[in-house]
Amino acid sequence: MPGNNRKTNALLHLLFCSVFLLMPVLVSTRPPGEPFLTITRPFIRDIIGNAFLLAFFYLNYYQLIPRLYYRRKYIQYTGLIILCLVLIITIPSVVTGRLFVKPGSVPFPPGPPPAGVAPAEDTLPAFLFDEMKHHLYLFIIALFFSLMLRIREHLANIKEEKLQAELNSLKSQINPHFLFNTLNSIYALSVKKDERAAEAIINLSGLMRYIIKDALDYKIPLQKELDYIENYVELQKSRLGNTANIRFEYGGLLNGKEIAPLILITYIENAFKYGVNPDDDECIVDVEISVEDARLYLKVFNRKVHISETHYSTGIGIENTRERLQLLYPGRHRLNIEEDNMTYTVHLIIDL
């Protein structure tokens, strides 16, 4: 995908440069009966000037702004901008003036007339201004847009780096939180000397491999996230045995869909923490995940059971996931939690 974006951007830049260079051809006017393309001094002057303006735009965008403007070397930056301006508004006129000069004439109009003679309409200052004003206007536009686009990109990069730092911080909180709860599950099996403890350890190794490797990515295939959740549910089934009614189902169009890692597990983990108790025969945890038209639907239901106050958590996982949803899917998710004295239900919709 990034390679396709780079190719698209390169093609757009090439198209823009081609149109800009050919602008004198596209907007040129000619008297009736003359050829479509007439090589005149203004035509060549504009071609050369536009080429210099393009070179200045990319020079300013990729070199001058990052190396001087961002480093607060404003004097050097201003000096080079003025130098570029002088070159752009003078070189095209000087070069074409010499190329198109007629024998016995000079490249520019004659000087002021003798005393007592009315001045000609086209004086040298007026001639120079007419020669340069076109490229002066375009230079100002190129300077403005190169600055605006570069600063906008710079701010976007800063925002993305800040977002990534926040996400990494949140992930660093999730991993120990999840590991603590999972080890508790395996410990419970070990205390009972249950043979399923070995299978649970294998499941845990798969879960940890996912956390260490895949969960570091910005987004992962949705199928990987679902496999991870399924391993977690199987781990809980091993711990609880027949003391809980546990159901996990998923379906829909999963191919090609991606999701932020560890964004769903918190609500499922919460259901097992507050919805199961080995001493309670009426424990229910029901998890449904479906995908329709690039939209993911998650429903997690559990019946509340009595647990000791020492097992209550601080709610870090739930609050953490709320923050991650706001950062990763702003305006693209809906979270609704229904709770009463007996049940707890989570409805989450994410536009993938």
Automatic annotation (TrEMBL):
UniProt keyword Transmembrane helix, yes or no: yes
Alphabetized GO MF terms: phosphorelay sensor kinase activity
Domain Signal transduction histidine kinase internal region positions: 165-242
Pfam families in alphabetical order: His_kinase
Keyword Chaperone: no
Highest taxon above the source species: Bacteria
Keywords: Membrane, Transmembrane, Transmembrane helix
Transmembrane segments: 43-62, 74-95, 134-151
Gene3D superfamilies: Histidine kinase-like ATPase, C-terminal domain
Gene Ontology CC terms, in alphabetical order: membrane
Alphabetical list of PANTHER family matching this protein: SENSOR HISTIDINE KINASE YPDA
Protein name as annotated: Signal transduction histidine kinase internal region domain-containing protein
Organism for this UniProt entry: Chitinophaga tropicalis
